[in-house]
Amino acid sequence: MSWQNELYQVYENNYGKADEKVMLLPVYHSTANAQVEVTLSEQGEFCSAVPIRDKEDSVTVIPVTEDSGGARSSGNTPHPFADKLLYVAGDYKEFASGKRSDNQKYYQAYMKQLKKWNDSRNSHPAVRAVYTYLSKGRLLHDLIEGRCLNIDEKSGKLSQNNKILGISQEEVFVRFRVNYQDVLGGESRTWKDSSLYDSFILYQKENQDRIQLCYATGRNTSCTYKHPLKIRNAGDKAKLISTNDESGFSYRGRFDSKEQALSVGYEFSQKMHNALKWLIEKQGIVIGSMIVLVWASNMQLLPDIIGNPEDDLEDEWDMMEEEDSHSVKSVLVSDTMPVYRERLRKAIWGRKKQNEIKSQTENREKVMIMVLDAATTGRLSIAMYEELEISEFYHKVERWHLETAWNCFWSKVRINTIRSFSLYEIVDYAYGTEQGDFIKCKSEVRNHAILKLIPCVISGRKIPKDIVRNLFNKACKPTAYENSYNWRKVLEAACGMIRKMIIEEKKDRGENGEYEVALDYECKERDYLYGRLLAVAEVAERVTYKKEESRNTNASRYFEAFSNRPYQTWGIIYKRLIPYLNGMQYAQKQYYENLISEIENQFTIADFQNDSKLKPLFLLGYHCQLKNMPSKKNTSEEEK
Length: 640
Prior knowledge:
By secondary structure, the chain is of the alpha+beta class. It has four domains: 1-24 and 208-283, no CATH class; 34-207, no CATH class; 286-508, no CATH class; 526-639, no CATH class. The termini are far apart. The strands form seven sheets. It has a four-stranded mixed β-sheet with strand order 3-2-8-5. Helices cover 46% and strands 14% of the residues. The chain is elongated.
């Protein structure tokens, strides 16, 4: 099934269901940000008016026509009910000073359109109240007298210095509240009145035109070539479907007219777009101009493919930490990889019973993944769309996080734990720059890189080599970071991605796709062994520092040079390490010298003297050895 039909099904299955936070818009309706709220009586008498100061409260559901539901940058296209002062104020000319201060053609077009609805058999008490009041042509007089809007004393016109939610007074959008005589007569907030929605829908259906074949449904119905905007947010001007580019030769050469190229029913378009807006507002992941959207056919909660699924369990770890910090450490540290695997399954699959999971797979439910991005301000593109069976989706996400996991320092409880990385972390560490306590990259770079990584998570595509290469290069420059914790995060993410790349290479060779996160004493790879040597030199020098010393070790200063010319640089590092070893107590000195000799003996002479650049495996050997080294305190206890 296509993405259009999937969105249409989302609308059909969810419209009318209660959702206090996010509303699935009815057809023939859209949203606008209102700045003024006018209260009328049921007879159409002015009661009061107030400026809207809360941005969230300003979002207003409004009826729209086919013309007004699109861009209104030019032409005279009023909304059917709530609209800007330019359209609804009959006395606009008296107080406005802009280019369109003479608004009579706009006001008359609005009133003519509203009168048709008011005179139809599908009229509504709120429509009659608004039409009766606005026919008097004194809206601005009442707003000024009620001190909702301000005028400039010198000119007598609306003040240019006063704005409501950043909008000038001449451009404010007006919505209406109607106080009914009968308390139970209806919802006074017209933008929340479902009976008003139904009234306009019936009115529109009775006045349908352009009956054609809808290519989506195969039925003859009222079709449209003006599709909705405001898809990503209330101010979004980008359209997903557009057919107004007749001068740009979008379809010429293949079709004589746009009707031959595409014909979509108005209701189908409205339901599809409204479902998309609803999903984005409800569960879309916003990354700059890009939207990542994942939904299931049964609308169940799904793991976040961008972030780290274990983040959902943080509250649980917090509770455990408060009860007994020692129990948390034992749960996280003991038998780490099996524990991590279990935690990951819990985070991804949730607390569902196995029979519930089985029934899902039997029903062949699907997960849809859609990525939207705007190449220009007026065009929205689908950068990616994929459908997966729900069980396959869960397994792919689980496998990604299992294969990219690494042993990291978890500052939450100040211990080491195995964890995977969010796509934000991977991209920021690969392409970002240090900004205080954080590392961030430019939004356009992040969008492009995350788009490359999403198929790796959900489709099992190989991890891009350029991202791994960037992480490796940045991790080889510890002195480039003012905050050592930032470098450690880059190093750990690099190790996780390198591990993933090694697993993929092993699978390509037909080998078992596993790679342990623990130190491999049997590995005799040149890159891995050189990484271990550098880690020993790092710790051996560091343990001789006094508590207040924070200067870089020789291993850190020569890190990048070592990765490029390991044999030559190791001679320099070891020569400079000798004074620190000589300053140690005998047992401690013997420990480090023996460890260095043990690692060097695993080299072949050719590998040890090979001075070519080290491969990414070098970082895994370095980090694993670093994690396996005893602290200064432990070494002293051994000496005793």
